Amino acid sequence: MADDTNLADDQESPGSMGPPYQTPKGVHDILPADHEYYTYIKKVVRHRLRQAGFRRISTPIFEFTNVFTRSLGETTDIVSKEMYTFQDRKGRSLTLKPESTAGVVRAYLQNNMQALAQPVQLYYIEPHFRYDRPQKGRYRQFWQFGMEVIGESDPALDAQVIQLAIRILKDLGIADLFTLQLNSIGTPESRKKYIAALQDYYFGKERHLCENCRARLGTNPLRLLDCKEEDCVVLAKLAPSLAQYLDEESKEFHADLKEFLDEMGIKYVENSRLVRGLDYYSKTVFEFWDASLGAQNAIGGGGRYDGLVELMGGNPTPAVGFAAGIERIIANMKRAKVRVPHKDELHVFVAQLGKEAKKKCLPLIMEMRERGIKTVGALGKGSIGTQLKIADKFGAPWTIIMGLTEVREGVAIIRDMSVGTQIKVKFEDTLEKMIELIGEENLDNYSPGELLYS
Ligand code: HAM
């Protein structure tokens, strides 16, 4: 993935440095080599979440802006500076989704999912948009997979969401790179008391804070606890601890969660300064931090959001969820030198010369594909020599060659591209011979399942 850290913020294209049309800063093409990772990650997510009874949901790429302002909180970084908000032709305010929890809760209510068996378990694999300063691991369009469990409050559910997140990271070969950071931020009431204590503590210390924190002290003082600026970190270390202000119910809930995690053999780091950047959380919050880099570029995070459904107009309905950044996952898979299996390698390249050969080759190509042979036919006008060079670049282990002579003699030449040897077969035997050479077990006979008709 390209890293455009070096582009000045207002530099939208590199001018004379390349093609005239380029992607805006912070967004990227997903090229075939990276799609191998995306495909694999999607398969793992679908498999593990299907095993746990989750169903997939996609909410729209854009929503009415108030879906996000109401749920994430007006003073959060995301809402105050990172949303892509625009007006449509009728002057309605719309926003590209910066995350999916708000949209999923909106969908839960709009589609009357309270009427389903609770909890409703949903997962998503979606692009999201944040006007963040682009840097390594921070993009303006990025993908998340996430899961939401709506309709039940029990620490066993929080434990399961955490376990599933870890299971997926394990499947992707990177679980060991991360530590699970865990905290409880209590109920909104207990948090109010804590926020007052925090503001008291910081009173008179404002000049030691970074500009950002000074601004947030009045609006979102919890965020001062996870600021990465040196002086702010020192002050945060000495600040009163949230744990002292937790209500009894949250304390008990958290103790149970930890017991359940222990029971499943899941290790965690208790981190009393972990608060997360969204207002909707209550009680459990957690993040997966790089074991060597710490808080920077968490690969995923989540928590409980018991008040959100009600805030969005529904009956009081507890919920818990998690989301992880797919670009960050891929970067870590590459860092850990994890490669993914994929099925994109070709079996056969068909080289031909002349219209008569083409007429023979087209049905053969069609039939080979039907039988699971991955086939590319060079049906242009290059010489056989040029086509063989192309075949080499495609990396197909076999090439079928049909020139004028072969058509006249009713044969085909099969060339083993790794050693350069050739055999001649009767044209009508070509298909079976290819299957023999490739091996039945290597054919691509993937089926999406039989269609059912009602
Ligand atoms: P979040 O912590 O804002 O949580 O995002 C989750 C993950 O998305 C991050 O840990 C990171 O890996 C990835 N991510 C976020 N912003 C960017 C970016 N600009 N570029 C690349 N990756 C990024 C949420 O979004 C919550 N909705 C999670 C949740 C679900 N809580 C409850 N349910």
**Ligands present:** histidyl-adenosine monophosphate
Total beta-strand segments: 16
Q: Which architecture of the largest domain would the CATH scheme give at its second level?
A: 2-Layer Sandwich
Summarize model confidence as the mean pLDDT. Answer: 93
Give the percentage of residues in beta strands.
15-25%
- Contiguous runs where pLDDT drops below 50 for at least 5 residues: 1-10
CATH class label of the largest domain: Alpha Beta
**Distance between the amino and carboxyl termini:** 45 Å
**Structural class of the helices, strands and pairings?**
alpha+beta
Largest sheet: 8 strands, mixed
Give a short summary of the structure.
The protein is α+β, with helices and mostly antiparallel strands and 454 residues long.
Please explain how this structure is put together:
The chain is an alpha+beta fold and 454 residues long. It has 2 domains: 273 residues, BirA Bifunctional Protein, domain 2 (2-Layer Sandwich), CATH 3.30.930.10; 105 residues, Rossmann fold, CATH 3.40.50.800. It is 36% helix and 19% strand. It contains 15 helices and 16 strands. The strands form 3 sheets. It has an 8-stranded mixed beta sheet with strand order 1-5-6-11-10-9-7-8, sandwiched between helices. A 5-stranded mixed beta sheet has the order 13-12-14-15-16, sandwiched between helices. Strand 15 and strand 16 form a beta hairpin. The longest helix has 20 residues. It is elongated. The relative contact order is 0.11. The site of histidyl-adenosine monophosphate (HAM) has 27 residues, from strand 6, strand 10, strand 11 and helix 11.
